[in-house]
Amino acid sequence: MENRQPDVDPAVVATADDIAAMRTRGAATIADAAAKALATQAERAETTQPAAFERQLRAAAETLYETRPTAVSLPNALRYVLRGMDGETVSELRATTIARAEEFRAELAQAQQQLGEVGSNRLRDGDVVMTHCHSTDALSCLEAALEDGKEIEAIVKETRPRKQGHITAQQLREWGVPVTLIVDNAARRYLDEADHVLVGADSIAADGSVVNKIGTSGLAVNARERGVPVMVAAQTLKLHPDTMTGHTVEIEMRDETEVLADDQRADITGERDDDGLVVENPAFDVTPPRHVDAIVTERGQFPPESIVTLMRELFGETTGEPWEP
Length: 325
Ligand code: RI2
What we know:
It is a single chain. By secondary structure, the chain is α/β, with parallel strands linked by helices. It is about 45% helix and about 10% strand. It is built from 11 helices and 10 strands. The strands form 2 sheets. A 7-stranded mixed beta sheet has the order 3-2-1-4-7-9-10, sandwiched between helices. A 3-stranded antiparallel beta sheet has the order 5-6-8, covered by helices on one side. It is globular and about 65 Å long. The structure holds 1,5-di-O-phosphono-alpha-D-ribofuranose. 1,5-di-O-phosphono-alpha-D-ribofuranose binds near residues 164, 202 and 212.
């Protein structure tokens, strides 16, 4: 990423690059990396002027924010850390920002563990769970169930185009969980063998809609038709405050080469320079609340339609850009 903002530390730019390229991915992991990057900016900011220090922190937040538009955990993390930046001198501002970032990261880890315990209560010994993409919140539910001594099996969708299902399969195998890996197109067939669909979320809207990796909505529709409950594991950090005031969640469109590599293009177009072939690569889709049975958070489980109550309690009427005071 081009560093358009002067005074943004190279380590922050490197974190932003990693998020944009998905070397750092997954909503909770992105939030954690963003908070850590703000702490680094606070540590390294070279100024004796409090106003300049604050400007640098806000510029760092903007650089991080511009990487990926859909996962609300990113702006929520930035907002949380910047709201803790307090003091009259640079050393006070530095200390409060670093402390706040550390607090955020500790709470994030704790929330994921608490959420896992709630989600685990929905799972019984012997259950088969179908997963989509790779979600650390979803895996936390499975980890807690395993720690409770429950035997769990998994049907793991590979999740095109980036096949992040492989990361899920790898983690589950490390935990000793029997895994059946399937292509996305086989999901409906294997739903008959599943007791739950378990997915994560990148954002949850005020009406209870779940924004998650592309393919989640089709899976949820099929699961509903088959009578398989759909559980969404999502820390409250995934609640999108702007949707309380009518904003919609922007769906990230990623590079077409993730779907069709440059050297595969010629398989379709031959030698022709064919601009009639269009490849689209939306990263996420929206699952309406009627296709979701429960949203599991660190505050307990909620029917999707009631999530707005929790949102109001946690965020008030928060809007505005995360770096705005
Ligand atoms: P955790 C991922 O998006 C997936 O959509 C996953 O369900 C969601 O983030 C949440 O992940 P991407 O970053 O926060 O892979 O539960 O595009 O780890």
